[in-house]
């Protein structure tokens, strides 16, 4: 079994470190030789179908649902189509307003999640074309969809999803750029800028992974933390949710993800010197606002963790732990910020001595509704 883990202590750690390769494999063959266009032969839907739709439904469970939340930002911004995001188990029972002009995109690593499969069938019954983003080839969801964008991340063994998540985000970027290309909502130069950024991601992810040891060395003081708060804004909000989910799943520490700007409407009441608060502070349009939230946490004594692409003394002065990551196109930053959060959850879980690869009560694929 050790051999399968290639020397890593757990499958999860191996899979975290496989991300540069997995991302390269998701991109392989999907960018034209002149780096100007996206090729998605996997999508069996006609151009007229893709240009004729007036809404998208993104449906998933768990970590894949967090990918869907990032997908909404991408698709609405770049392909200019309204997107609804649904948790699969909620979708069917709300009499969804879905028809043949609503493209449904289901996201599932395993392709076997019962709620997601049931939602897919519901959408099809109501006449919607269905695409899937899956990791497992020929899975039930893949087989029942009109087209599949495979993530090609390779088998994911750890119950807590890591490389499947970041490659779902890559698949969503590819799909969004393809839609934008078909619908002509994006200038060629903008598309090419994103393509260039996509191609340099494996190298940047490799760089982020170098934080592994530093993160391992910071976790001990937080071993007995009872709660963690994760804050992010815009496309980083779903990453805050995902970071909190990772921590809950494998370390059994309660954690909550929240939109940073909403903190003042509730979670701020929880902040005291015992609460670790992880803030995703990315240098984008809302950076100044996130920094203001940071000041508020600091004023109440919260133990601040910062993940940022900005190395500045003002932030350093506020932070207990400060993890600097490289910067890239803002639409791709969620892929980079995911990684320190995976490592943080992993190292805390290892320190707590939990069964990292097979946490209690959880299953890799949930085939009951
Ligand atoms: C289970 C797993 C999660 C996963 C979710 C959805 O809860 O433990 O890691 O995100 O199912 O799985 P799927 O295979 O549909 O992406």
Task: Please provide a brief summary of the model.
44% of the residues lie in helices and 15% in strands. The protein contains 14 helices and ten strands.
Description:
With about 375 residues, the chain is α/β, with parallel strands linked by helices. About 45% of the residues lie in helices and about 15% in strands. It contains 14 helices and 10 strands. It has a 5-stranded parallel β-sheet, sandwiched between helices. Helix 2 (about 20-25) packs antiparallel against helix 9 (about 190-210) and helix 9 (about 190-210) packs parallel to helix 14 (about 335-350). The radius of gyration is 20 Å and the shape is globular. It starts with 10 loop residues before the first helix and ends in a 17-residue tail after the last helix. The mean pLDDT is about 95. The structure holds 6-O-phosphono-alpha-D-glucopyranose (G6P).
């Amino acid at each position: 079994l050790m051999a399968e883990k290639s020397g890593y202590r757990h499958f999860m750690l191996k899979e975290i470190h496989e991300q540069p390769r997995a991302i390269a494999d998701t991109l392989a063959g999907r960018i034209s030789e002149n780096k100007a266009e996206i090729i998605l032969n996997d999508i069996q839907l006609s151009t007229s179908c893709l240009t004729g739709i007036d809404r998208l439904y993104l449906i998933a469970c768990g970590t894949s649902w967090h990918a869907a939340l990032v997908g909404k930002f991408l698709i609405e911004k770049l392909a200019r189509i309204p997107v609804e995001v649904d948790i699969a188990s909620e979708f069917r029972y709300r009499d969804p307003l879905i028809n043949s002009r609503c493209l449904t995109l289901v996201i599932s690593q395993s392709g076997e999640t019962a709620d997601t499969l049931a939602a897919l069938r519901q959408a099809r019954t109501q006449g919607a074309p269905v695409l899937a983003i899956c990791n497992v080839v020929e899975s039930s969801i893949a087989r029942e969809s009109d087209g599949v964008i495979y993530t090609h991340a390779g088998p994911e063994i750890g119950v807590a999803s890591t490389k499947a998540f970041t490659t779902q985000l890559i698949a969503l970027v590819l799909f969004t750029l393809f839609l934008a290309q078909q619908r002509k909502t994006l200038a060629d130069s903008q598309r090419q800028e994103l393509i260039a950024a996509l191609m340099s991601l494996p190298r940047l992810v490799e760089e982020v992974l170098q934080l592994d040891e530093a993160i391992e060395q910071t976790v001990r003081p937080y071993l007995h933390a009872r709660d963690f708060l994760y804050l992010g804004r815009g496309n980083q909000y779903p990453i805050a949710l995902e970071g909190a989910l990772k921590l809950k799943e494998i370390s059994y520490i309660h954690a909550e993800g929240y939109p940073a700007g909403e903190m003042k409407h509730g979670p701020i009441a929880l902040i005291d010197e015992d609460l670790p608060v992880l803030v995703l502070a990315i240098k984008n349009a809302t950076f100044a606002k996130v920094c203001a939230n940071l000041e508020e946490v600091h004023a109440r004594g919260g133990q601040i963790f910062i993940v940022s692409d900005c190395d500045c003394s003002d932030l350093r002065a506020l932070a207990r732990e400060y993890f600097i990551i490289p910067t890239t196109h803002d639409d791709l930053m969620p892929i980079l910020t995911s990684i320190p959060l995976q490592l943080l959850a992993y190292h805390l879980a290892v320190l707590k001595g939990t069964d990292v690869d097979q946490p209690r009560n959880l299953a890799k694929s949930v085939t009951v509704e």
